[in-house]
Specification:
With 617 residues, the chain is an alpha+beta fold. The chain is built from 22 helices and 7 strands.
Length: 617
Amino acid sequence: MFQNTFNAQSLHETLGKAFTSSDSSDYYFKIAKKSIKTKADEGQYYFCKNARCTDYNQFDSAVVYGERAIKLLQRKEDLNSLLTVYLNLNKLYNNQGQYEKAIAYSLKGLKIAEKEKNEAWITEYFINLSVDYHDYESFEKGIDYGKKALLKLKKKKQTNPGSLWRAYNSIAINFDDWNQPDSALYYHKKALSFFKGSDTLKIPTTFNNIGNTLLKQKKYKEAKRWLTSGLKISEISDKKENIYFFYGRATLYTNLATIESELGNYLQAEKWFSKAHQFALKSNSAEKLRDIYAARAKFHTTTKKYQKAVADLEEYIKIRDSVFDVERDKTFSELEVKYQSEKKENEILQAKAKLFKSETEIKSKNAQFLILSLITIGLIIISLLIYRQQKLKRNQQQQEFELKSAIAKIETQNKLQEQRLQISRDLHDNIGSQLTFIISSVDNVKYAFNINNDKLDGKLSCISDFAKATIIELRDTIWAMNKSEITIEDLESRIHNFVEKAKIAKTEIAFNFNVDDRLKEVKFTSVQGMNIYRTIQEAINNCIKYAEAKSISIEINQTNDTIEIIIQDEGKGFNQNQVSFGNGIENMKKRVKDINGEIKFNSIIDKGTTITIRLKK
């Protein structure tokens, strides 16, 4: 026993040196291999080999060692090592742009963590899936998993700031690339709030991410300050040149190069693009290579180096087409459906097991009562036991009925969810992919050819904008279909995004949007949520089109047990007795009526119009 313990300690020390050594790693791994005595030792050996190769982006070796480790790490005490290997394999495939394999490994690890009821690892995998779906540009799912992780972390009495930072960061980057900069900045600054003073040296990524969001808002000078700070922090804190180092540098230099290009500093931009390309190649990240080719193609177009622009655009399209296609999107949906279906099946099995256990316990009790009554008591006790037996039988039947009802409900929900996912997948695959093809084709024509005809260029832009708007409408529909319930927070984010776009389109109109904090916990069905959103959307559109409004305000308040939504414009108003309502108004009335609400219109000439919607909580 003493010898085995001593050997295990010796092996772990040697493996620790092998993992951390910069130039003697192979030497220590050879020594460790000679010390292997058991399957558990061998599992730890391949676990460390996988971790080392992952850090240095040795893809093929890391995958081989990882698969070997998974077969050997099956004991309870190896749980952390096993789940780390699944996480490493996820990162490897994510870096290669093979997102369906990356997500498959995340879901496998998540299933094990859920089976073991390990909350820390469940949270870790939620964060990981949030990043996976971000990289594949499935931002809504990314936000959903990020919020699940955040919810679990907030329930803990004591939480590691690093875990909270990663959860907030994963949500923020999804909002950022989903073109919702205000939400992105909110979550980025939440992440930053957990680190003060010298602790900010731990998170250069957040500085870069905030700079990236400001860059997209064309706030170039402010973005440059954040990015420059991020680069300085990174130079101080990043001591180890591995794939994470190269990935971070590629991101920073790509963003700095884009800013210099927009500011007209083309020589400096070209210098930063060169650095960004070197680091992107070293990181071997499909995401980073895709980003730099897209940014540099635009730069070369601006500087009229069209041959280089076309070459970069071809590389961008090649990477994008290899990563984002319809078949892979189907695989993602199938993985998610399979995971959710297995989860529901486990719930059904647990309910059936509980039913069987209940039946067994009741039968056992009945038998014990019957035997005791025959031995110890006479006819009077027997009559009492018969009465009690009948009572227990009724209780048993009631329990059976309730459990069977619960099972039927779970099975029905599961089937409905699968049908909804099938419909949303068909919408996304058929209509979504065709619209995406139109946008890509139009953008390719605009980037690849020097179009001097302003009218033709305007027409192409109109086609692209119309297709993008249609995709947004399609995503709204799929968003509602994929959710069994919609929170006020979800609705607020959706309306806020619509209002932000309206601000850009109508800069002369002042918009104001407020939601009562007491409504944060309110939830709607998907039908209610979509009807509310579409009604508000139609009301704002009418204000913009017909009211000639100076300002538009949207207020969502709570009055006793009623939710009150008020859309008010400071416009020209109309005479309600002289104006016939069109299809838009009639649609608004029908949507509100369908969710058992009421809507009222009040308009005063030259004063404006107020639309009031009241819903029961």
